[in-house]
């Protein structure tokens, strides 16, 4: 028997966003990796919105790239429109977003994966997780084709497919996405191994034939001239002219009226579907129900690719009966003649509440078994991919008998995400927001490489080229910053410019760097205006210039220092480990709620304990005293 | 209610090769057409070999194009290697073949469909065929989403999906293709309407990671410098250098030995799968079983696209247990390290024996319901597409209350295909061969446009541009031929050339046209050599020059005339209609077999009756006398 076909170091189950990153990371780190997914042609398929990034999510995508992941490169290749969201706010919360060709994105992911040497693929459905007799250590998987594939590490990323049920009005049927089968077997098998599962739901809007839309009554939303790429390796993007536009329109009171006629047949309202859905991605019926005072909601009409006229009606997610969706859609300005390719629908699926995983994403009950992506209760491609890359990394760390890599909340949104999941759990699909990151001023999308690429490289994941670019960027920033401190400008050189942006003029020469701190000043413009740009700037690789990068730091200087103090305080707490067998029930001077929650979550240290919902500052103080006495 | 969403002129069920052509034809002819298929992203998916054309099949593909279909254009766009097969034989049986990018082909088909104005699409599964209360006239379909779509004509093209069951070794499970669900419901519904169904099977080889193959020990098979395009609208193809190569290798005695170890677990040999399969596309186990004296079989390693390393192992179709396939594959030179993406498998599915359809492809039992493609018992993309285009045409003819379009056996391979199906039926998957066409000398791939484009245009299907090109081609042939007849060449002009190709030299000037008839002579070369080319040739649009086209006619002149006589004789018979209610059982002077077969098939005329298997010439004579007396 040729063992190399049936035996691997790491098996990744599922070729969605999570599985693709997991497989890429494990294989790039040198593990002989097998990716098993239902259909190879569906690798990297976007289940819903054909877009990557946005606020919070864009940060994650940049972090995945900084570590050496594939999402960013695929996005840059498949992007048809690039924007930077939240530009009116501070740069910490700017979020890059790319509209992607759906087909192009899947193709780009497939190509990224095919370019990795020791990554093998298999088209098949996993039916069973195999373990040793005790059910304590994973040994492999059994598939629909009846074959057993063995590996000491298995990463499970089956998304919305586990016992997926699709709902449209009163109709429902099994499916993982429309037109794709659900997958069965795994949940039962995990129950036998001691896991608990829950149900969640999510929804998607109708797809529409773009030829049937009247764009002339909609507002055009073109790409953004100063959008940046997703990958730190990308040097340019298609010009705004070469990008496609999205279109804005609104629902009307009539739309809402029509939608309401279907409420009595909506699975959400009849109770046919009572799993929890993503509060922040509500269906249109949820929106008109919850915000009944609003007489319109904005819709984004988004192209699905350069090679198709299909469009995505962002904001119109629904599981109302099809004829209701259809009639309602036709009351939206510009959609009077719309032809739907298919209605919106809701899907409910199994997930595994994430108190059952470690920070490494390895499960607590079965050694070598990792969970990543939507099955941990998240929603979104970026959230899934982030867990995927970390699970892939930690599977290999385990093979190497090295410590798991756990990103801190102060280091990355990915750290926030995983910490939130593990420490707080979730009872609705979890998605990232910048507000979830208390250290968000440190965690900018523009500095993800400075935060993470060195680590990625040390792990054998980020390439030498990536590391070199990061170092070169850092050097460019340092050198330029020093030059800017040493350079003064005269009133003649800059007053015109200062006046034009509405800030006070100079009465004597000043160091440039001081001017760059002023909120009104755009440092690139200032330097160009003063005729100094070429002289003082050392160019940084990538899509942001050194002055732009420095300016962000300068403007945040005060906050950043304060943040760093907070981080230290928190890290102090993280350095207080809590023993594995710590008996919270024996503590009668902490609240009952804290006792219960802490027993369930089993935090590794005081920092994590402090973030478990229901645990109060007073509980933590008690714990700290106790641990001090013990330690 | 907006009726335009739920009511259409023609509904096509299934977006495979047959459904795509049917929908394109109906919509291009002006019908408001709805294409319903399980998943829009799978439109135009090649289930098996990523190639179009070949001997016989290439003819069909060209005919579909000539009529105004989409297969040829998509093939030219997606082709990665073009060849002309059978070049060593006469030009009547030359067969164009293109290796295509699997993803690129599906994308090209989707784009062709999206470019058609009144074609709408829907992603959904049809569960039920709706009829009037009497079950005699189709009224629409009901889908998985519980919706009813109405149309007076419904074309059913569900391929291998109806109750599809996939087999690999002793494993089997439902599926329409691997990773795709089977479709259920339609067969039962057709049984209720009085249809009979049968089971057929087909198989596919493993997919392999091309990076794991050692091509250095294989024979390279590059593209062909004088291959022609599939569409008569295409003017050039990528250069041979820009095309990809296929690779040849062979199974070995060891391969066969390993394969035999799995015979006791093969669904073919254990009887688990006893539907009939395509005799001419046998599985590798069939081949070594039937041809046990052969110690090797040729395998073609074919690329799946420019953007993937996946390859298709043509010739290694199998449903043996996966480990047997795997070990056997690894005994093939160059495949010692091969990694399979998935094993080969066999699939069995429902089909509807085609005595239940008319020549128009409309069913005999339900008015307005058409069957096309694999569900009529054929195999192959081209065979499916051919039926699709004819069903689409005839659905619209029906709406127009016009006569159905039935191509004659002497007019097109498509005519042969449909006549064979309807008149002879099939009990194994039917595929086209040139030998099935008794008039094959008339039915060349190079003259499909001359045979069919005028008809296509008259129907409103072939574009004006297409017709103009055909007319221009015909004119170029006529003018050039006349010039060639009027031009003489001297021995000095051509003797060198004649000698070089090994035919006798001249002793006096002769008309060029005479030389062109000689089998050794390549007319283009001759004219170039004589310095006459530019002077005597009127260029034809498309990829074949006027002299090349004329030469083919010249070389076949004798045969062509004889063929034309035969055709007339046959057509004479076709002009003898047989009344609908003709009672064959009442004839006791024809054979019992003939009585039974003819009653089942109910041929429209004497010509068709003569082709029903089991009907003898003597039976036909009796019938003719009878009809003469009656008429
Ligand atoms: C209808 C719908 C609407 C959504 N709406 C939103 C939204 O509005 N906003 C948002 O942020 N996110 C939304 N999402 C969620 C987003 O698509 C997911 O969060 C993301 O795709 C999860 O990635 P994943 O890798 O975890 O799983 P998926 O992308 O679901 O990928 C799972 C993969 O695993 C494979 N697989 C499953 N089971 C098996 C098995 N047993 N064996 C082998 N392979 C298997 C599947 O074929 C698939 O390739 C929606 C998802 C769906 C389906
Ligand atoms: C495993 C396999 C091996 C094959 N091997 C060969 C070979 O070696 N040589 C050869 O010449 N041919 C082979 N074929 C056959 C070839 O693929 C088919 O002949 C050809 O694809 C038939 O085209 P079609 O349009 O009739 O059906 P298909 O291409 O099967 O398309 C059917 C379409 O209908 C859709 N559909 C099905 N049911 C429903 C429904 N209820 N509602 C809505 N949509 C529906 C499907 O999603 C699909 O899009 C093979 C096929 C398979 C599956």
Provide a descriptive summary of the structure in words:
The structure is a homodimer of 631-residue chains. In chain A, the strands form six sheets. Chain A has a six-stranded antiparallel beta sheet, with no helix packed on it. Chain A has a five-stranded parallel beta sheet with strand order 6-2-1-10-21, covered by helices on one side. In chain A, helix 3 packs parallel to helix 13 (448-458) and helix 7 (253-260) packs antiparallel against helix 10. Chain A is globular, with a radius of gyration of 26 Å. With 631 residues, chain A is an alpha+beta fold. Chain A is built from 22 helices and 23 strands. The mean pLDDT of chain A is 92. Chains A and B meet through helix 5, strand 6, helix 10 and strand 19 of A and helix 5, strand 6, helix 10 and strand 19 of B. The complex binds flavin-adenine dinucleotide (FAD) (2 copies). One flavin-adenine dinucleotide binds at residues 13-19, 36-38, 42, 47-49, 125-126, 157-161, 176-177, 183, 186, 202-204, 281, 347, 373-374, 379-381, 384, 431 of chain B.
Strand content of chain A: 15-25%
Count of helix runs of chain A: 22
Strand order in space, largest sheet of chain A: 15-16-17-18-14-19
**Largest interface, Cβ cutoff 8 Å:** A-B, 53 and 53 residues
What is the oligomer described by this structure?
homodimer
Give the mean pLDDT of chain A.
Answer: 92
Low-confidence segments of chain A, given as residue ranges, are none
Distance between the termini of chain A: 54 Å
How many strands appear in the DSSP assignment of chain A?
A: 23
Class from helix and strand fractions of chain A: alpha+beta
**Main sheet record of chain A:** 6 strands, antiparallel
**What value does the Rg of chain A take, in angstroms?**
26 Å
Proportion of helical residues of chain A: 25-40%
The shape of chain A is: globular
Small-molecule binders:
flavin-adenine dinucleotide
């Amino acid at each position: 028997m040729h063992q190399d076909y049936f035996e691997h170091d790491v098996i990744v189950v599922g070729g969605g966003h999570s599985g693709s990153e997991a497989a890429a990371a494990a294989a790039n780190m040198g593990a002989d990796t097998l990716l098993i997914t239902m259909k190879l042609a569906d690798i990297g398929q976007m289940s819903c919105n054909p877009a990557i990034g946005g606020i919070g999510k864009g940060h994650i995508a940049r972090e995945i790239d900084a570590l050496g992941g594939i999402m960013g490169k695929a996005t840059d290749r498949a992007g048809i429109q690039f924007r930077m969201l939240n530009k009116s706010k501070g740069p910490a919360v700017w979020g890059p977003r790319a509209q992607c060709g759906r087909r192009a994105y899947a193709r780009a992911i497939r190509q990224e994966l095919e370019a990795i040497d020791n990554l093998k693929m298999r088209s098949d459905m996993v039916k069973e997780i195999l373990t040793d007799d005790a059910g304590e250590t994973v040994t492999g998987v059994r598939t629909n084709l009846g074959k057993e594939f063995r590996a000491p590490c298995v990463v499970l990323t089956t998304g919305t497919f586990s016992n997926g049920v699709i709902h449209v009005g009163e109709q429902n049927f099994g499916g993982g996405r429309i037109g794709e089968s659900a997958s069965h077997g795994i949940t039962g098998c995990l129950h036998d191994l001691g896991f608990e599962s829950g149900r969640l739901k999510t929804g998607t809007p109708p797809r529409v034939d773009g030829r049937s839309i009247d764009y002339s009554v909609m507002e055009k939303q073109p790409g953004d001239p100063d959008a940046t790429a997703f990958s730190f390796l990308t040097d340019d993007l298609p010009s705004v002219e070469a990008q496609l536009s999205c279109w804005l329109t609104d629902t009307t009171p009539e739309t809402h009226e029509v939608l309401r006629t279907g409420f009595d047949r909506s699975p959400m309202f009849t109770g046919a579907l009572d799993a929890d859905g993503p509060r922040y991605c509500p269906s249109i019926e949820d929106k008109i129900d919850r915000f009944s005072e609003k007489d319109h909601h904005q819709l984004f009409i988004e192209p699905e690719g350069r090679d198709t006229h299909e469009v995505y009606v962002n904001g119109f997610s629904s599981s109302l009966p099809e004829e209701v969706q259809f009639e309602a859609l036709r009351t939206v300005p510009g959609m009077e003649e719309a032809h739907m390719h298919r209605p919106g629908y809701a899907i409910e699926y199994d997930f595994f509440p994430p108190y059952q995983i470690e920070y490494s994403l390895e499960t607590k009950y079965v050694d070598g078994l990792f969970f990543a992506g939507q099955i941990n209760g998240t929603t979104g491609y970026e959230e899934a991919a982030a867990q995927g890359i970390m699970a892939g990394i930690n599977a290999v760390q385990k093979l190497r008998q090295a410590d798991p890599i756990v990103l801190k909340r102060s280091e990355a949104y990915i750290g926030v995400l995983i910490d939130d999941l593990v420490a707080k759990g979730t009872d609705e699909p979890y998605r990232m927001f910048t507000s979830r990151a208390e250290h968000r001023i440190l965690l900018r999308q523009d500095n993800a490489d400075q935060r993470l690429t060195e680590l990625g490289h040390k792990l054998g994941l980020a390439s030498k080229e990536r590391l070199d670019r990061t170092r070169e960027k850092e050097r460019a920033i340092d050198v330029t910053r020093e030059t800017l401190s040493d350079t003064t400008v005269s009133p003649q050189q800059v007053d015109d410019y200062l006046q034009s942006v509405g800030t006070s003029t100079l009465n004597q020469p000043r160091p440039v760097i001081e001017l760059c701190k002023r909120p009104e000043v755009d440092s690139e413009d200032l330097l160009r205006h003063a005729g100094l740009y070429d002289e003082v700037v050392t160019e940084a690789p990538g899509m942001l210039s050194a002055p732009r990068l420095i300016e962000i730091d300068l403007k945040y200087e005060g906050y950043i220092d304060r943040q760093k103090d907070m981080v230290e305080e928190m890290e102090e707490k993280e350095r207080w480990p809590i023993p594995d067998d710590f008996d919270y029930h024996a503590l009668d001077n902490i609240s009952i709620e804290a006792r219960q929650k802490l027993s369930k979550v089993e935090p590794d240290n005081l920092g994590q304990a402090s973030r478990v919902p229901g645990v109060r500052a007073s509980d933590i103080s008690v714990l700290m005293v106790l641990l001090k006495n013990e330690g």
